[in-house]
Every structure is written in C-alpha cells, then in structure tokens.
Fold this protein.
Amino acid sequence: MKKLSARRRHPLAALVVLLLALAATGGLYAAFAPADKAQADVAAQSLAIDEGKKLFAVGCSSCHGLNGQGSSDGPSLVGVGSAAVDFQVGTGRMPAQQPGAQVPRKKNIYSQAEIDQLAAFVASLGPGPVTPREEQYTSTNPEDLSKGGELFRTNCAQCHNFAGQGGALTKGKYAPSLEGVDAKHIYEAMQTGPQNMPSFPDTTMPEEQKKQIVAFVRHTTNDEPNPGGLTLGSLGPVTEGLFGWIFGLGVLIAVAIWVAAHTTKAKKS
C-alpha cells in the first residue's frame, strides 16, 4: 500500500493516467465507430443492388436473363463490372433498340442514380472493371496532351482516325466518332473494350496513360481550332481528293457545257 501511495504521488502519475485514458478512448472509438460506418455502407450498397435488380428485370432481363447469365439474344454480364454498365447505359447503347452489326450511341433513358443502381447489381454478379473516379480520367497537366497524342496514334488511330472522327470496319461495323463523348465514358471504353474495341486493362495500359489519352481526345475533338476551315470529317487525303474530283470536275463540266452552248448560239446567229 505504501508503494502504491508513493507511485500515486509521483510527478508523472497524472501524465500516465491521461495517456491511458486517451488510449482507452481511442480504442473504444476505433472499435465502435467504423463498424457503424461499415454497416451503413453495406446497407446502402445492399439497397442499391436491390433497386438495380428491379430495374434490370424490367429493362435488361429479356436479353441478358434475370440473373445476367445471358441468352441467345444477349451475352452474359457476369464479370463485366460496373464500368461496362456505366458506359453502355450512360451512352444510350443499352438497352438496345434492335439487333444489328453494331449498337449505336443514342440518348440514354436512365438517370445517373438509376445507372449506378444497375451497375451495383451487375457488379454483384462477379468482379470486373470498376467505374472510375473523376481524378482517374481528369488531367490538369499540359504535358498529357502530347503524351496522349503519341499513345492515341499508336493504339487508337487505326480505327478511330488520327483526329478521333471514327472510321469504317468490316461487316457493317465501325469505330464511332469520339467527338462530344464524356471523358468518363472514353476511360471506361478503354477499361472494358465495348463491341469491336479491344480492352486496355491497367496491366496493359496503366491508369496514367489512359488519362493522357482522354486528355488528348477531349482537346482534339472539342477544343482544338481548325484554321483550315471545313474539315471534311478529318479523314485525310481520300475525302479531300474525292471532294476535288466531285466538285472540281463538276465545275469544269458545267463550264464546258456553258461554253459549248454559247458557241453553238454564236454560230447560228
């Protein structure tokens, strides 16, 4: 008892008690507070999945099956991830109006909240590419434009054209124009490889490179001026030559007819 009493009178006794109290408070908070937040997150995710399943049953199950297992009219969605849903539904490609060589982009019929719910349900079917965060596809570095241009010309220009205006493929398919496409959807297309496009996962093309390509495409298709005037689709010398033949040769033919007609009149008079 005398030893305990002596320790209580020690100058550092109050400091030790304070440290123990802080440690106990922090431990209790760590034990209980995260659990509440985790439970709230799990509940919100579960609600999103349930709502997404209802939307899926109405708008998607006729082709993809009630559980996304696929059918003769649509592929399985197990493992495609939330990024694929956000891209396909956000660009209006899904639900598809009719089967064909390629599903075109159109006005989407779902709100972003509904798209998120559909994505949550499909993501619950199996792991896949996750919808990117804004910082993953938004660049603030001016150097990304030149680096993105190099990457785009190496990996994308063969199909989408060097200016991102799209181009024809085989059997009625085509690489769509990238003009006006949302930055997030460009990133998601590289993640998931929709329709005829190959996928570029982080193991093949790191996140930073995808961000650079998005920066280049957005600048080229939306911001870059065209001092030369009419772009003719930015398809290069083929369309320029065709324009010259059709309109240039047409003007020459019209002039020749006009000269011949006036020459005939002059001879008759």
